[in-house]
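hey so u asked for the seq, here:
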Amino acid sequence: MRLYPLFLWLARIMAILGGLVLTVLVLLTVVSVTGRALNGLLHTNWVETLAGGLATRLLDAGLGPITGDFELVEAGIAFTIFAFLPLAQITGAHATVDIFTTALPESVNRFLTAFWEVLFAAALVVIAWRLYEGMQGKMRYNETTFLLQFPVWWAFAASFAAACVAAVVASFTALARIGELVSGRVLLPMQGEADH
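ran it, structure tokens below
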């Protein structure tokens, strides 16, 4: 298919963005958990006895958990999930359980593959639509997070953008699988066969 390289490129770009955001979230969590642990340690009696001045200076400098870390992780992880979906979709890398389908004829398997791809594309379109509606509601009511006070719609917007790309790639994949069903030819890789 002529459009396959374009959609594969788009899926890879989204996966890279998702990977970058996930890396930042992991680092944020590590720093926050480490800060929380050190903060607790510096409040123990034996540390205050041994290094009271140092402990006080570190605590006064703000050593502790990152404020609102869970709000940032919650906002970012939704984006990363939707950012990774297009690559898994276009490369056929979703986990499958094919205990019963291996014994079925190839034509039945092609029908099942096309059916599930269409269903998945439809689900992603609905999810993107509902994220858009949710984002509109959050914007309308100026809802903010509890600790950091950043607008909740920012997280919805990021997830909506990634879900739109996932829906577009899934729709392309569904159309390709329908083409495979009708033509009997292989148009897209199956089960992670794409070159990574």
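The chain has a mean pLDDT of 91. DSSP finds five helices and no strands in the chain.
lmk if thats what u needed
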